[in-house]
Amino acid sequence: MLREQEFVGDNFFDEFWFWDAPDPTHSAVRYVDAKTARAENLTYVDSYTNKFVMQVDYEGKAVPLGQTNSTGRKSVRIHSKRLFGDGLYVIKASHMPVGCGTWPAFWTSNKGDWPVGGEIDIIEGVYNSKVNMASLHTLDGCMIPKNVSTIQQGHLDRTNCSYQPGCASSFSDKQSWGDRFNTNNGGYFAMMRDTQLGGLGIQVWFWPAFVDPQEIPLAVSAAARKAPGTVDTVVDIGSFGAPQAFFGADMGSKSSCEMSKLFHKHEIIFNIALCENGSQLSNARWEVDYVRIYSAGAGTFFF
To answer: Where are the domains of the chain?
Structure first.
């Protein structure tokens, strides 16, 4: 059985730290610390909805790239203070960043020398994407078999998980990304990670917000602070249906991807990167209803 814990509203400020170092992906942003983000309203909790909001500075003037101490427009990147291993990761979001050059992501990664310990991208894409893409990044030695396409709803785009660009599957549901996602008031994503020897692998699901909550697993759709206290990895996850993305299970020493060796405990990360210094960025924001984790423990503090 896995036990639930949840991040919602002001709790994000307690459970996440703000990255303010240069962007490792070299995008056109300057990530700011928590004090700056809150003072300049780049992150806050909506007083009416209790949603946690993160956004790009679309009002201030972006410092052109190439100048001394300039790295583009102010933005937000947050990391969980705890590290989590195998379990069920759920996010309900009402809005994701869109606009010229936006490159948002919700992902998990080992804290260390990337990609040692692996990376799992649950929500990711650039501003002109049509659907969401889930992907893995590992050290050499992880290949996803092509026949997983028969078990998932999405399309397997890349099979080699090593480094960049990693293995990836694009979702079949066009409501999973961008303006369509936002027009429908968002939706629910769930990622099941079972990377132990002989485990079920890594799977990602999506449900648009307009789907009847009774047709979505309660561990995913329950309102903030009203979710079941535990889930069973076999019985409960078995009712989720076919995932949008499925990255094959660890089959032992003869496996094409020994996940038990390649994936360590991860931090949870949100960010909004930019491919360019675009000006049409008033909708480049996350609105997060909650993040919910079901795991064997409360997570390991490292920050």
So the answer is: 78-278+291-301
**pLDDT tens series, the chain, 303 aa:** 788 899 999 999 999 999 999 999 888 899 999 999 999 999 999 999 999 999 999 887 666 554 445 568 899 999 999 999 999 999 999 999 999 889 999 999 998 899 999 999 999 998 889 999 999 999 999 999 888 778 899 999 999 999 999 999 999 999 999 999 999 999 999 999 999 888 889 999 999 999 998 899 999 999 999 998 988 876 677 789 999 999 986 555 556 889 999 999 999 999 999 987 666 788 999 999 999 999 886 665 554
Q: Which CATH architecture has domain 78-278+291-301?
A: Sandwich (2.60)
Answer for the pair 187, 90: CB distance below 8 angstroms, yes or no.
no
Cα–Cα distance, 159 to 67 (Å, whole number): 39
Report helix, strand or coil for 25. Answer: coil
In a 10 Å sphere around its CB, with 0-12 CB exposed, 13-18 middle and 19+ buried, how is residue 215 labelled? Answer: exposed
- Which DSSP string do the residues of 230-286 spell out, in sequence order? EE-TTTTGGGS-S-SEEE----STT-SB-HHHH---BEEEEEEEESS--S--TT-EE
Distance CA 269, CA 81 (A): 10
Other CB atoms within 10 A of residue 142 CB:
27
Say if CB 107 and CB 116 are below 8 A apart. Answer: no
98 within 8 A of 274, measured Cβ to Cβ: no
Contact 278, 228 (CB under 8 A): no
What sign results for the dihedral spanned by CA atoms 132, 272, 77, 115? positive
Cα–Cα distance for residue pair 219/238, rounded to 1 Å: 13
Q: Which residues of 82-117 are buried (b: 16+ CB within 10 A; e: fewer)?
A: bbbbbbbbbbbbbbbbbbebbbbbbbbbbbeeebeb
